[in-house]
Amino acid sequence: MTLQEPTARPGLSSKALELMESINTDAGKDNIWVRTQMNSPAQRPWFTDPGGATGTGSMAKGRVAANQMKSAPYRWRWKDYKAYLDRLSRIASEADVPPIEFADRQSILLTNPGLNGRLQVTSTIRCAISIYNPGDIAPAHVHSPNASRTILSAKGGYTNVEGERCEAHRGDIILTPNGTWHDHGNEDKEPVIWIDMLDWPLMEYLDCAWVDQEFKPGIGSNQKSQATLHGDGYSEALYGHGGLVPTFVSHQRGWGYEPAPYIHFRGEEIRSALERLRKEAGDPHEGIQMQLVNPVTGKPVFPTLNYQTQLIRPGEETLPKRETCGTFIVVIDGKGKTEIGGQTFDWEQNDIMVVPNFVWRKHTNTGTGDAILYTVSDSALLRSIGQYRAQGKDKSGKVIQLVQ
Questions:
Q1: Which residues lie closer than 8 Å to 276 by C-beta, 6 or more apart?
Q2: Whose C-alpha in 148, 169, 219, 386 is 20 to 30 A from the C-alpha of 130?
Q3: pLDDT tens track for 283-314
Q4: Residue 94 host element (H or E)
Q5: Sequence-distant (≥ 6) Cβ neighbours of residue 85 within 8 angstroms
């Protein structure tokens, strides 16, 4: 039996198209659109570009993709954004009413050039960088997004999370899982700076982003802050021993689902863990990489965001890799360069980069010492809905599927 070639569908006649568009003239008044174009997502299949430098495909056209946007590779230099933080700090120190009183924070927000001014660096991640002068307090509050602080100052002030006081230092990561009351402040003599990471854009898309500040702190030295129920290092004492989890305490923090109870990851401990493994072969696409996990569940610290840290040795060049997740990177130490979607960005301490989903990227350490990078991605979310994929290139340039 010979299979017949399928009959080609005739194209839409110009007359039919004209008549349908005339319907749209009326339908638009009722917020209705009669389809006149083939369905096409803004992002064409990234995995069909086996050897290109970018892997981004090309944006579709027409009504279906008209309002869709895609994040772009970008780098924010420390020397540039620090200047804005310093100006903000001076204004706050000289003003009769400091910004923290009417804006709740003293911070700048990073915007991705591909997202049309939206307050986000990827489709799911918002990044603010805050500066607090001596004596500043951000009042206790709770919100639906998950959040964290990455400390850039030598001393990073403090954060209280559900009554646990976290004294912060450079390189520390302090988690505030959704549904946990938290407040921040600076009792040091110099301004402190940290990076705030949140899955706020995702919560906005789901229409469940909110903040509550009607906290009743009870007994405390300052009514804007929570009373200290647990001193600095409490969660570290409970959960800071690999493979051992206490059975005599509740692991619930706030009202979120399976919140990460280990909330204070210390920079010196992160670095020490990486350095103990620096003689290992590591991952050819990531170097020496470790993941921050919820010690009770073994899962990523947030169901939406995955936090990782990596060490790249002097002269080391990782092989190209691309993922379906968007990734935020902050340079904690070292110098190097990263190729993202065919663009090369050099970097040094405190510089920040964003890697959009689907694009090829690779890191090179150009300095004389180890480079330490912290990353945050939405791979945790994508894994949970079955949409995480990763590809790499081997030394010959052949594209390979990476098992994650």
A1: none
A2: 219
A3: 999 999 999 999 999 999 999 999 999 999 99
A4: helix 78-94
A5: 108, 129, 131, 193
pTM: 0.89
The overall longest dimension of the chain from CA atoms, in Å, is 88
Token output for 223:
């009514």
Domains with residue ranges and CATH for the chain: 74-401 (2.60.120.10)
CA dist., res. 60 & res. 34, Å (int): 19
Contacts of 62 (CB under 8 A, 6+ apart): 37, 40
Q: For residue 76, which phi and psi values (nearest 5 degrees)?
A: -110, 120
What the block records as the tokens of 390 is 């990763």
Q: What is the DSSP letter of 300?
A: B
User: Tell me: the pLDDT tens digits for 27-70?
Assistant: 888 877 877 777 766 666 777 766 666 666 566 666 767 777 88
Q: Is 291 helix (H, G, I), strand (E, B) or coil?
A: strand
Distance in angstroms (rounded) separating the CA atoms of residues 290 and 54 = 26
The answer to whether 164 and 205 are in contact (CB under 8 A) is no
